[in-house]
User: Fold this.
Amino acid sequence: MSTIDIQENTARVSDILEQISKLNEMVEFHKNESKELSMQKQYEEMRNNFLLELNGILQQFNIKIEGLAA
Assistant:
């Protein structure tokens, strides 16, 4: 893997983690405050999609997230 690829992956991982953090806040809000189950599920699905993408990037470094629903 080239230095450019590593830098691009690092930037994308950082972005994904930021997005997951925001989604976690939204999941908690809908879980505890609004009680809107459909919105909570929507944000959980979005978070799962980011986790799948993150897992794909990390596999390039021989790192795997276990227990992740495909």
User: Anything to note?
Assistant: The mean pLDDT is 93.
